[in-house]
Amino acid sequence: MTAEQVTVSGEGLTIDEVVRVSRYGANVAISQDEAVQARVRKSNDFILQAVEDNQPIYGVTSGFGALAYKVISKDQAVELQNNIPWFHKVGTGNRLPNEDVRASILVRMNSHLQGASGIRMSMIERMGTFLNAGATPVVKEFASIGASGDLSPLSYITACLIGLDESWTVDYQGEEVGAQTLLKKIGLEREELGPKEGLAMVNGTSVMTGIAANVVYDTRNLLALTFGAHALLFQGLFATNQSFHPFIHARKPLPGQVSAASTMLELLSGSKLIADELQGQHEFRGGDEPIQDRYSLRCLPQYMGPIVDGLRQIAEQVEFEINAATDNPLVDAAAGHTYHGGNFLGQYIGVSMDQLRYHVGMLAKHLDVQIAMAVMPAFSNGLSAMLVGNADRTINGGLQSLQLCGNCIMPQLQFYGNSLTTHYPTHAEGFNQNINSQGFGSANLARRSVEIFQHYMAISLLFGVQAAELRTKLIEGHYNASKSISPGTLGLYSAVYEVIGQQLNADKALFWNDYEQCIDEYIAAITADIKSGGKVVEAVTAVRQGLVS
To answer: Which of 99, 371, 429, 485 ranks highest by number of CB atoms within 10 Å?
Structure first.
């Protein structure tokens, strides 16, 4: 992920571009296309004239929400807008991560560039200045029900942009400073919101959408890593590749299923640690082992397929929201009308983040089943109990506690998969917002779910590496799996070793004697690497691209 400049124009902004700005410090530029510039200017001109003519427009010449019956004179129009952040200053809880606030600002800029909001270009430019200066308003995790958009979170951003009061603060290069102090540091003057500008800034889904963009990006990485972890565990379990044969999936050609099967075929191609049965052969494996793999192995494409399809749909919906005008009312300057509507309802984000958390829980459960087979000799096709490395040392515990740690995490991920959007208060804002999306809350839960899954993924990769090495010993007579695992998983296998600071050893598996390493340090190192999009994630870049397309 590079920090190339991102140009916004009101359309075509992608999840990857949002992440480039939010995490990797890419500069932001506003399109200089005259059509983009003109539509913003014309919508603002329309609002100024409408106020001058005392036209009845919600939130411009009327009060807000349950107080929309109140008439606002043109002399009060500016005061009305500048009062908005004050009565929305109710945020509480933990701070949102800076990257999510930055993503929110970028999405808000893009939304306003559609020219349907009535806002001045100078206000949009301020948002770009904040992003490029590394100035991030402090926003809290509680206050939005995602009905009129993210009212309170966006009001915190708005107050900081104009330097309304020192009580709103900004993270500037690691230091928290008052909003007015910040403006001086970055060379901006205090500003006053014009007619509709306060409403245009706070009515919208941009904060939940910014969070969702970062979450979807991370989940795509985790999906690719899930396939990589499965491929390592498949090789450790000496599973067959026959279940991924194109003939099977051409008979049930759902896109996600076909993609999952082809991904596994590519990842396992060339491995010496699988039963290569693509020619249709069926070999008895000896002992009590069945002639075909158990369901969690054999049915992987059918299980993973709906998740692949689901995440593609979620990403598509998030990108629609990124490129939408989501405030109210919307201005059609060309026709000379404003329209009262509900694009600020974050239902698509709420539902998609509910679904994403469900999918994350299912990914973890599937890996948990493969790990459970790997540690049990009755199901592992000959691996040592609990994947003990040095079986000659009778007091070694192997990976039994690592499995328990995973067993602690997996049920929580499934719990996070429960819906939030169904639990909305019908009486919100004096029964005005009597349906609401809970999109902001659902997106915050999705972030937490992804953070937890990153820890679980680190655990899964450690199991995959150990299982592959023990299988290598059974087949090749040594523990260095680099020449026996598939080329498609070699990069991931090597990356795990590099991240934890260990060297491949033909005489020992990664986990040999209990006292020789601190497993928690390995988990922490791999988790941090996954969070940062480091070497472990880079090892599955091709897998990610194949699943996203």
So the answer is: 485
